[in-house]
Amino acid sequence: MNIIPLLLKEMHEEAETTRKMLSRVPNDKYDWAPHPKSMTVRRLSTHIAELPGWVAMALTTSELDFAKMDYKPTEINDTTALLNVFERSYAEGYSRLEKASEPDLLPDWTLRNGEKIYSVRTKYEVIRMSFCQIVHHRAQLGVFLRLLDIPIPGSYGPSADEDFM
Q1: pLDDT for 67-82, tens place per residue?
Q2: DSSP class of 40
Q3: CB 52 within 8 A of CB 86
Q4: Inside any domain, residue 157
Q5: Cβ distance 75 to 43 under 8 Å?
Q6: What angle do CA 127, 88, 33 make, to 5 degrees?
Q7: With the C-alpha atoms ordered 90, 151, 141, 76, is the resulting torsion angle positive or negative?
Q8: Distance (Å, whole) CA 138 – CA 22
Q9: Rg of the chain's alpha carbons, rounded to an integer?
Q10: Torsion 81-83-89-91 (CA) sign
Q11: Which of 93, 110, 135, 158 could form a disulfide with 52 if both were Cys (CB 3.0 to 4.6 A apart)?
């Protein structure tokens, strides 16, 4: 069994759902957060939009070391820009995965902060983890939107805001 076609299918299907969710973010709520310990809508939605790029990163690097990077999230101020970031990130990740071979999924990839190692996983596992992170944070965004009384799109079927019949 070849894994890459399955990953590509999943990535495509999750992108459709993610697009719908991100498109609901209202331009006037980017600085809103439901709790002081929660991310703002801006930070959460930007993270979701950038996560598909982890597929390309996993396939082209052997690690991510927070101590050696100078990450600055893309500054998002409106939903059009948010969707543009998502589309670029998705295209980069999808394209890289399309070009990959099955053996490319096997090497280890490390997530660290200097000497502190958070995880060592195969590149396949990192790709799957990035998909899971998208779903996880998309669900968080769904809660944020619900609290803002914004209708939620369905993910794996209709939502309570959509016509069931």
Answers
A1: 998 888 788 999 999 9
A2: P
A3: yes
A4: no
A5: no
A6: 80
A7: positive
A8: 8
A9: 17
A10: negative
A11: 93
Torsion angle of the four alpha carbons 123, 128, 129, 131, in this order, in degrees rounded to the nearest 10: 130
* 73-78, long-range: CB < 8 A, 24+ apart: 73/43, 73/46, 73/47, 74/46, 74/49, 74/50, 76/30, 76/42, 76/45, 76/46, 76/49, 77/27, 77/30, 77/42, 78/27, 78/30
3-state secondary structure of 81: helix
Single-letter amino acid code for the residue at 153: P
CA distance 57 to 37: 28
Name the pairing type of β-strands 108-113 and 116-122. antiparallel
Residue-wise pLDDT for 29-55, tens only, equals 999 999 999 999 999 999 999 999 999
The token pair that represents 157 in the structure block: 């079927």
Domain that holds residue 73: 3-147
Domain count, the chain: 1
What percentage of the chain reaches a pLDDT higher than 90?
A: 88
Residue 13: in which H helix or E strand, if any?
helix 3-23
CATH of the domain at 37: 1.20.120.450
Structure tokens, 111 = 């997530």
Whether 18 maps to a domain, the answer reads: yes
163 within some domain: no
